Amino acid sequence: MPWLSLLPNDDGDDRYSSYYLAFIVPRRDDPLALLPASSCCLPGHPGQPAHYGGSEESPGWCRIGSSAMLNSEMDSGGSAENDFPSVDATSTFPPSHSTYDPTKVADADGYVQMEDGDAGRDPGDRGYAPSIASSIMTAEGLADRPGFLIICAVVLIGDMNRGVLFPIMWPLVEELGGNTVWLGYAVGAFSFGRIIASPSLGKMSIEKGYSKTLVMSTSIMLIGCLMFAQVVRVQSLLFLLFSQIILGIGSATLGVTRAYVAEITATRQRTTYIAFLTAVQYGGFTVTPIFGALFTYVLYGKSYEFGFLIFDQYSMAAYFMGMLCIGTLCLLLSCFQSRHRTKPGPKSKKSSRRLEQDEVANRITYCNLTVYNAALLGCMLLNVSTKGSIGSFETMGVSFAETHFGLSPALAGLIVSCNGVVGVCSLLGMGYLGRFLTDIQMIIGGISVCAIGIISFAPLTSVDMGANNATIHYILGIFMIYGVGYPIGHTAVIGLFSKVVGRRPQGTLQGYFASAGSLARILFPVMSGYIAHYDDITTVFVVLFINLLISNIFVAMSSKTLTTLSI
């Protein structure tokens, strides 16, 4: 039987909890199906349907009243009733975080969709796309779980292009007559593709929607995989760089995917779900090297040709990735629901904490930037610092394992993969860590552990000089970097940046943030290649340690401001 339920809003202010009253009707196939639009009207809006998304096939919600409950001491002169007016006393209904456009005219027999970009369309051509209102209704969890899983698949294959190729990149460069400098360029070329495409794809996701953006990028990635498979046949280092650039362009969707997750999650849970997404990304380039190691082990020294196709330890990895791209394209075309970002309406009155936050954000710093812009820039530099450090290990890891520990590329890839699994577990546990630690504390702690793991390699000498370095040292160092330090510290940076951006359109800014990380993966690998070639690889570790130490000092000095802006 129908019932009334008091449901919470996610208003971004933890001192107050605002609620709305929903009229809910159970259904056999969905216990939380909500009342159709034609069945209820808003107070003060006679004859206007109150339903904002949903149908018998797709749940929506119906707000017929509101209240506010005070969780802490009221500001002087203020009241809950003033800060949270009822529906018929404010022009800003629905809530500011809703994307419902009040200028659209609803049909009495139709439904108004929210994130589908078709609000107010002809009801004769109805579609019942899932509404983002489900996260508004619960103020917890995800608004679109199937969409989130498909987004995870896109992120996974994007970084699998980096991970699966990790064990074979150095042998391939040697096969083509290159050295560590060419290795740095080859690794950096992938990120170069990302950096030139990330802002454009972020902007496209706002203008054209997520679905079209992701389909286009995944198609480009498929082309890059097919090109990489022909590198050995072409026998050109320049062709290797070009195929890496195409792969980078196709996988330049980190900003798009993070913006999507930021939009379908409540602010208080954003770091948790960003951590889930980062766990998938991290697993893509740290766990999947085991596939590259497997191809190297099984097909080492072997080659098979079928027409214009060649199958060896290098091309098999590319064909494998191509198959995954095709599968992801099928999911995007058949199951992914298109969503368009629309600008939320302004709030009628800001809380005192929001006013304090705006006052801090608008201050001018000594470099003539607002504190808000300076905070965004600082988070991007933190992204450069952490991404660059892991990028250097991605470049030199196999070479370092060979020269200083006598390990084969397959075994080195296996060690990185196992510690990558530990890193994924660390990321999945960040929701629990978030109960006890702030983003700032996780950033400082994660970077510190990563820095200690890196500097532990600095005193080592190579096997050619008679050194007998214990393999357990390599395992422990990689554990501190890949298993604990980088995944926790870097993911906390991503979560902090998303919170500082707040409710502004995140697509473009997340694109710039991803481009900053890609820039680091260009500069640091190339720098590492030159240093290792002309000096010694252990010098690279000293440079990386100093870089991370400076980053931690910046975070500690800016912790109060960053915390204020991220609440």
TrEMBL record:
Biased composition (Polar residues): 88-101
InterPro entries: MFS, MFS_dom, MFS_Domain-Containing_Protein, MFS_trans_sf
Stretches for region Disordered: 73-104
UniProt-annotated location(s): Endomembrane system
Major facilitator superfamily (MFS) profile domain: residues covered: 147-563
Membrane topology: Multi-pass membrane protein
Entries under Gene3D superfamilies matching the protein: MFS general substrate transporter like domains
A GO term for molecular function: transmembrane transporter activity
Transmembrane segments: 182-201, 213-232, 238-261, 273-298, 318-339, 360-385, 405-428, 440-460, 472-497, 509-531, 537-557
GO cellular component annotations of the record: endomembrane system
Parts forming coiled coils: none
Keywords: Membrane, Transmembrane, Transmembrane helix, Transport
Protein name: Major facilitator superfamily (MFS) profile domain-containing protein
Organism of this sequence: Thalassiosira oceanica (Marine diatom)
